[in-house]
Amino acid sequence: MYCGSCARDNALAAELMSRGHDVTLIPVYTPTRTDEPNVSEPRVLFGGISVYLQQYASFFRKTPWFLDRLWDAPGVIGAFAGRMVSNDPRMLGDLTLSMLQGESGVLRKEFDKLVEWVRAEPLPDVINLPNSLLIALAEPLRRAFDRPVFCTLQGEELFIDGLVSPYRERALDAIRKQVPQVDRFIAVSQYCGGFMADYLGIPFEKISVVPLGINTNGYEKRQSRTGTFRIGYFARVAPEKGLHVLADAFVRFHNQVESSLLEAAGYAAPIYVSYLERVKKTLKDVPFTYRGVVDREGKLAFLRNFDVLCGPVTYDEPKGMFLLEAMACGVPVVQPRRGAFTEIVEKTSGGILVAPDNPAALADAFHQLWQDPVRRASLGANAYANVREHYSVQRSADRLLEVYKSV
Questions:
Q1: Domain map of the chain by residue range?
Q2: Nearest C-alpha neighbor of 299 from the set 2, 93, 90, 69
Q3: Contact predicate 154/8, CB 8 Å
Q4: Do residues 265 and 293 lie in contact, with contact meaning Cβ atoms separated by under 8 Å?
Q5: Least confident of 75-89, 95-109, 140-154, 222-236
Q6: What angle do the packed helices 359-371 and 373-390 form, to 10 degrees?
Q7: With the CA atoms of 125, 100, 111 and 145 taken in that order, what torsion angle do they form, in degrees rounded to the nearest 10?
Q8: 191 neighbors 343 (Cβ within 8 angstroms)
Q9: Do domains 4-209 and 229-390 have the same CATH topology?
Q10: 3-class DSSP state for residue 361?
Q11: CATH architecture classification, 4-209
Q12: Residue 103: phi, psi to the nearest 5?
């Protein structure tokens, strides 16, 4: 359940703070989840419970702000978010549109709270929204503080495309109309920048690319060994993340190489428990282990245990954080040639790209690496070195500062 976007933003904030910059990282909706020391503020703006109550009960749109603090407390929000709140876009059309309507919608009180909170803080040089679903914050913040507003683009199209009609079309229209309120958009990959320019109607000259970066502290190089060939999966358990594709591929591969196993880790939301059970049925006759959610130490140990990592997502992924984490341990990857995976694998020379949605192609790539330990070691060495060269949080922070200063 650790959030990839939260992890990226938190790592960048921590790196900038370590250089002496003043950074305020403000959680929105729910407290942030990250497996590194959390540098976000100990409060939540647009608290998920407040937003929900105001959306569906007009009484709460008029309650005093001091009363809202009762259910805006991070501990209260966290308790509910962990048990009964769904982030399934099929269920959140009304809330999504209300957020995109901004001050003219039913959540006006929350926008007023945001401006008042920022007024009490030191005046920022720049304001950076974490994704385009929060673009309605741009205009009131620009108006109140006369500072440039940036908006990061990091995979929100998956949520938008999951909205049912007509919410999807209305949400896209609302975002596109507010593009002029943002001074510069920041894409987390070249692919993301090109795709989102077309998807949201953003002039290409308003998009700058700041590649992902990870904090590589603690990522030790895996030790070479012989014996059982180990394949890993590290991502959310959901159909779009492609665990079922990997399951089909592994069954094919295991029929050729019996001394092999598959291990998976990652959060499985309640709505995807049945999906996970179907995957387990596919894998019932082969060595497979699902480890659930792992913390940072568990993640580092988990990733170092593999000969190869694979996350065959079924859509054009704009990020690929899990690739960087595996490669930082010297683990080569096998990935579909799509989205940001192409540029990451080609830039690092740390893996093999295959045709998308093709279990046979994945199985063949696994077999190639199993047969050729020299090549496998070379790809792993490339991955280990080039993630540090091109995808460290330090490099990402350097580029982010360049973009801020240019505006």
A1: 4-209, 229-390
A2: 2
A3: yes
A4: yes
A5: 75-89
A6: 110
A7: 20
A8: yes
A9: yes
A10: helix
A11: 3-Layer(aba) Sandwich (3.40)
A12: -65, -20
Instruction: Please give the Cα distance from 52 to 371 (Å, whole number).
Output: 55
Place 86 in a pLDDT band, splitting at 50, 70 and 90: low
CATH class, 229-390 region: alpha beta
Contacts of 168 (CB under 8 A, 6+ apart): 160, 161
Structure tokens at 22: 């003043």
pTM of the complete model: 0.91
Q: Which of 378, 384, 366 is nearest to 327 (CA)?
A: 384
Instruction: Return the bridge partners of 102, or none.
Output: none
Structure tokens at 3: 């959030």
Contact 238, 314 (CB under 8 A): no
pLDDT beyond 70 at 85: no
Query: 101 phi and psi, to 5 degrees?
Result: -80, -15
Three-class SS string for 213-277? CECCCCCCCCCCCCCCEEEEEECCCCHHHCHHHHHHHHHHHHHHCCCEEEEEECCCCHHHHHHHH
